[in-house]
Write a structure and sequence with these properties.
The chain has 179 residues and is of the alpha+beta class. It is built from 4 helices and 9 strands. Helices cover 27% and strands 27% of the residues. The structure holds coenzyme A.
């Protein structure tokens, strides 16, 4: 059963099903998509992530939703909310996050989905504040964050804890929005 949480003009945002595992693994192996991640994921690691995302839904009732095309029913990637489990000064917090397959970039899909997710999170789910963070030069992602109206919190910028000091992807910028 695909549990649908949200619907936008072009997308359905829903929970994960086994059929998502293959296109998700393909996306996680794509060097373009994973440019700002420390590593690409093999099938096993990608599957473990699906398991983690599904557990998050069970525990919290929300999570990183699969973005599905209303038109073609294709898996496009994920956009959603996730509890920050990193050792960072701004945790505990709920973050908004996204990753789309390359073929779907540049058509406003991430912004469309994220707008709906943000409204849902701050509204219906009554989350008092939502954060977003990314590698400092991930301009595409930062464009989406800024379009959503989150504000940069320069004091919150941080080095990603799970990366060695000085790693080229370590430096992260933090954004926040309150209900
Ligand atoms: C970030 C990502 C989700 C964006 O998806 P998308 O559907 O292309 O995003 P949208 O089309 O809604 O918006 C992208 C915005 O970035 C802008 N943009 C695109 N490429 C850009 C670039 N190289 N530099 C600056 N801005 C750029 C677009 O102009 C657009 O803004 P606009 O609508 O005001 O013109 C997608 O690129 C992705 O999955 N990246 C890999 C995963 C990732 O980095 N996730 C974030 C990790 S924290």
């Amino acid at each position: 059963m695909k549990k649908v949480h949200l619907e936008t003009d072009r997308l359905i945002l829903r929970e994960w099903i086994d059929e998502d595992r293959k296109p998700f693994a393909q996306m996680n192996a794509d060097p373009m998509v994973m440019e700002y991640m420390p590593r690409r994921l093999d099938e096993g690691a990608s599957d473990k992530l699906v398991d983690r995302f599904s557990q998050h839904f069970k525990k919290h009732g929300y999570g990183l939703y699969v973005a599905e095309s209303k038109d073609t029913k294709e898996f496009m990637g994920f956009v959603g909310l996730s509890n920050v489990e990193l050792e960072v000064p701004f945790a505990p917090a709920v973050e908004i996050a996204w990753r789309l397959s390359y073929e779907f970039w540049g058509q406003g899909y991430a912004s469309e989905a994220a707008k709906s997710v943000l409204k849902h999170g701050l509204g219906k789910l009554k989350i008092p504040e939502i954060v977003a963070f990314t590698v400092y030069d991930n301009t595409r992602s930062i464009a989406v964050i800024e379009k959503l109206g989150l504000e940069r919190d320069p004091k919150g910028d941080f080095d990603y804890p799970r990366l060695p000091k000085g790693h080229p992807l370590a430096k992260h910028v933090l954004f926040r929005i309150a209900a």
